[in-house]
Specification:
The complex is a heterodimer of chains A (477) and B (112).
Chain A: H1 6-26, H2 36-84, H3 90-117, H4 149-167, H5 177-200, H6 222-240, H7 256-274, H8 283-311, H9 316-330, H10 339-364, H11 372-390, H12 418-447, H13 454-459, H14 461-466
Helix pairs in contact in A: 2-3, 2-4, 2-7, 3-4, 3-5, 4-6, 5-6, 5-12, 6-11, 6-12, 7-8, 7-9, 8-9, 8-10, 9-10, 9-11, 10-11, 11-12
Chain B: E1 2-8, H1 13-22, E2 29-35, E3 42-46, E4 49-53, E5 56-65, H2 70-81, E6 89-95
Antiparallel strand pairs in B: 1-5, 1-6, 2-5, 3-4
Helix pairs in contact in B: 1-2
Classes of the chains: A mainly alpha (477), B alpha+beta (112).
Amino acid sequence: MRLNLIPRRWAILWFLFSCSHLWALAAPAVSSAPTADVQAQRISNLEQQTAEARSSADNAWMLTSSALVLMMTGPGLALFYGGLVRKKNVLSTMLQSFAMMAVISILWALVGYSLSFGSGNSFIGGFHSLFLRGVGLQPEADYSATIPQQTFMIYQLMFAIITPALITGAFAERMKFSAMLLFMILWSFLVYDPMAHMVWGKGGLLNAALGGHFPTLDFAGGTVVHVTSGVSALVCALYLGRRLGYPREAMPPHSVVLSFIGACMLWVGWFGFNAGSALAAGGLATSAFVATHFAAAAAVIGWCLAEWWRNGKVSALGAISGAVAGLVAITPAAGFVGPMPALLIGLLAGAFCYYMVAAVKARFGYDDSLDAFGVHGAGGTLGAILTGIFASSAVNPIFRDAHGNVLPSGMIDGNFHQILNQLVGIAIAWTLAIVGTLIILKIVDVTVGLRVSEEHEVMGLDLSQHGEEGYYWDVSA
Amino acid sequence: MTKIEAIIQPSKLDAVKNALHEIGIEGMTVIEVRGHGRQKGHTEVYRGREYTVDLIPKIKLEMVIADALVEKVEHAIVVAAQTGKIGDGKIFRSRIDDAIRIRNEERGENAL
């Protein structure tokens, strides 16, 4: 028997329609002339609702951005790096990034956030927010007036996670897992937290937004993330030495396919990294989003042109590496430059990083296995310098005088001084990275030992460090 | 009984298999191998570093056949696998002492 649904459907609609009228009945009847008190109350309510709406929008974007940036580490970077190493080391390489997601998160919650963003001195924060004390749902006005401080905290955590993960590219395929963990814990305290504080923290020496002494324009972490990690990577590569058999033995990437997928995830995730650094969902986020994308696109062209000129072919690995180089270079500039400069920055970064990776590395012979220095260290440095040139107050009026008038940002605005500030920030990042990393390497070397044994290196880290194989395909079921 | 080992271009596997089926050969083992004779390899470039790949992918077919069929089999393989260029491959013939069917322990040419 077929049920006749049409009358039932209409009955339900009629019922809902009637219910909607109940709200009208519940509302108070409108009187003839509202008093001034009532009006003031309604305006106050409206203001609060507007603020809440704006806060909702900003918070939604910031939570999304936090997720995007975390995705950059896992699986973005894990895949990107994982594909570049030999098959016997794929899991260990991926686990190095993944471990940061776990370890750095704990450190951040306990004390890292407090050291980076708490008030302290010009170089480091303090212990005021130990165990995230006081970090609740109220905004922290110095950092972002419209989102809960916990959102800000969790967003910044994702940066603190990916920065040490980048370094793993330098010592891939030869570092002990235990040594790497100890190294990263020390590095986050000695290098990342101070640098993050100096550029972004209250009272930071280089903080452009909060009146730092040497205001360095670093929108999303060109110096804090890429220069520190990239330069540390170089120091590690030199200290640990080359992989066995490098450069005579062939060590091509075991899966450019994995790297390809990872790189695409990095590109998309980077919108959270750069546009999220606007800390709000407004026009500045749009500006940063747009600049980020165009820089990536132009950098693909830049790298591929350079590669084509040198090799006669455009490679997939080259194209994706170019994109990453552009994204690195636009990181400090994203919220300060317009779309055309973003294209130029990307184009230059693509070509420059290709040269660093394909020529300079071979010339000097260091084994920066996955080009952490060539792409992040060099690209970040270039981007930070170009930020000083192309920063425009029309995009972001970051500098204001005592009366609130907008001051020029970068060289194209007429501020020729800013490039010097950029160089100060870059120099501090380099110095902190070099000195800090050397100290930490020495400590870890003496206590735990840095490199795996020769036997373990030949066996592969997946087996020797983790007792696993990445692909159990060749063995019959 | 004779063992025939044929190293051929991977793209010729289907043609050789079909040719062998047509003359009644149905038992064979196919292995993916890498190697080279006089054929040159190629270079690959990753981030500016060149790698010479001189171990070229090939297919190796192994089969054990009755002595009477040897000429027919070798001819069929050559015709199916040949392109006329360096890298076509090689066939090796060797003597087999015995063959055993695992299912019912038959021996000799009956086991083939």
